Here is the input.
Amino acid sequence: MARRSAPPHSGPAYYSGAPRGALSDPNESAIGAFLRTEVFAPDKLPGNLSVLTGVAVFFGGIAALRTWGDILIPA
Here is the structure.
């Protein structure tokens, strides 16, 4: 099997060692950086929406059973 290599002039294939958040505002808080990189990042948004949907269905089920649970028990 032939070995695949990087395209010419693509630069190094290893991590450059840039500090985390180097491209962001230096006055940004840790919470703001976390929200930007983990919650609202475009590559992580589908997974975060999936977790949010699961949590909403879970708590919606609890609320529905507490509200209408008495009609589920035969009298």
About this structure: The two ends are 72 Å apart (CA to CA). The mean pLDDT is 83. Residues 45-68 form the longest helix (24 residues). The chain has two helices and no strands.
